[in-house]
Amino acid sequence: KSEEATTTGNCELVYLDFNATTPVAESVAEAMTNAMKDAWANPSSAHQFGAKAKEAIVESRGWVAKCLNAQPSEVIFTSGGTETNNTIIHSAVGYYHSPTFRVLGEDEGSKGLPHIVTSTIEHPSIENYLSHLEKLGKVTVTRVNPSRLHRTVIPEDVVAALTPHTCLVTIMLANNETGVLQPIGDIVHSIREHGYHSVLIHTDACQAIGKVKVDVTKLGVNFLTVGGHKFYGPRYGAMYMAEGTPYHQLFYGAMQERGLRPGTENTIMIVGMGEACRLVFLNLDAYASHMEEMKIYLLQKLQDTFGKSNVSRNGVTESVQVLPNTINFSLLDSDLTAVEILKKASVFCVSVGSACHTFDIVNGGEKESASKVLLASGVDKIVARKAMRWSVGRDTTKNDIDVAVEELSRIVNDNI
Question: What is the rounded distance in angstroms from the CA atom of residue 116 to the CA atom of residue 118?
């Protein structure tokens, strides 16, 4: 990309919202276009046209597996992250009620309600489904807060929340608002070390893939969620399920995806996912290095423009690991809330938190409020209402950042 900021018509626009979604990479679009022309047949059909579509799916599944350091048989394609997260929760509840799950300790042999442990910083596709099941009286849920000191979920706190009826622990790998990486590997180790071998463990890795190395063998989880549009792929998804993990499916039909997720395969989207994962597998270090460089430049530019003490980074500490592309910050001296700034912005495109939350409050869909994730991470409510999430991408340039910060400065200064 040149050092010119992205231009649309007569208006210069700078996109710095890559945690919300990413554009489809050129080679991904090309692969999908070719699949439309050459792999359009039903993959289940027993003829050459069907075989070509099936071959494309097999190759794509292999690239997704390589990206995660998994086996191809452990990858199941889905419509996206939300379906995957809902399906895993549904499966865990079914697992609890099956003969396979054994209640331990004093309650051994006596089943009540399945218990699920999660955190207070999860994506709505986790939190809202769990809340729905709670209201129906089908599960009990314990929500663990991040440590106010470390800003991450502490393994010991997760273990302390476990009960003999716990069937699932679900904690995201990277937070979409703050970029903070959760110690999933340590959490898994602590759970197993304390003898909870029947508890299923899931991590939503949608925000991490394409930015940091995601290795399922090192994480040790039973389930992991993949969302293609977060790493320059299509709006499609996949579920990693470790070999031997008990599974209770949500959909019933024919034998696509080994009968675990039936429905005629969306070959075009699957091919796009495969190509996006191939790019990550081959180029992750370069992608991450560039994003880290741009993030550091952005932070320095903000501090130089507004003063170091006036730029508050939210939800992070010096010791915590963070995604290489994400800065959540507030301008402390400004009276403007983040929503007020976004309404005035005509050049830069960012979010106040998750993309869905941003859309609702900027467009009047709900009362302006502070991010629940930031509040749970120990950020003051007034500071949280000023918080913006700026996330850079693979092609972000210093000029993009200069243009965006210049407009931010104008908006803030015009309000003085």
Answer: 7
Identify how many contiguous H helices and E strands the chain contains and give both numbers: 13, 14
Q: Which amino acid is at 13?
A: L
| Those residues with Cβ within 8 angstroms of residue 308's Cβ, 6 or more apart along the chain or in another chain | none
Q: What is the 3-state secondary structure (H, E, C) of 233-261?
A: CCCCEEEEECCCCCCCCCCCCCCHHHHCC
Q: Output the CA–CA distances (angstroms, integers) from residue 12 to 25, 211, 380, 398, in the order listed.
A: 21, 27, 34, 15
User: CA-CA distance, 180 to 380, in Å (whole number)?
Assistant: 18
pLDDT tens digits along 130-159: 999 999 999 999 999 999 888 999 999 999
pLDDT at 111: 85
> Cα–Cα distance between 83 and 281 in angstroms, integer?
24
Burial category of 110 from C-beta neighbours within 10 Å (exposed 0-12, middle 13-18, buried 19 and up)? exposed
Based on the number of CB atoms within 10 Å of its own CB, is 165 exposed (0-12), middle (13-18) or buried (19 or more)? buried
pLDDT score, position 353 = 75
d(CA 302, CA 401): 9
Which residues form the catalytic set? 356
Q: By C-alpha distance, which of 398, 362, 376 is closest to 122?
A: 376
Helix ranges (H only) for 248-379 are 267-306, 338-344, 355-362, 372-376
In 3D space, the residue among 268, 255, 281, 270 whose CA is nearest the CA of residue 66 turns out to be 281
The first and second tokens of residue 347, run together, are 């050049």
DSSP secondary structure code for residue 8 in this structure: E
Residue tagged 């071998």 (tokens): 197
Reference 408, options 355, 354, 331, 352; nearest CA is 331
Pair 204, 239: CB distance under 8 Å: no
pLDDT tens digits, residue range 237-249? 999 999 999 999 9
Amino acid identity, residue 107? D
Question: Using CA atoms, how far apart are residues 254 and 42, in angstroms rounded to an integer?
Answer: 13
Start-to-end CA span in the chain (Å): 36
Q: Rounded to 5 degrees, what are φ and ψ at 408? A: -60, -45
- Rg over CA atoms, the chain: 22
Which of the 8 DSSP states describes residue 146?
P
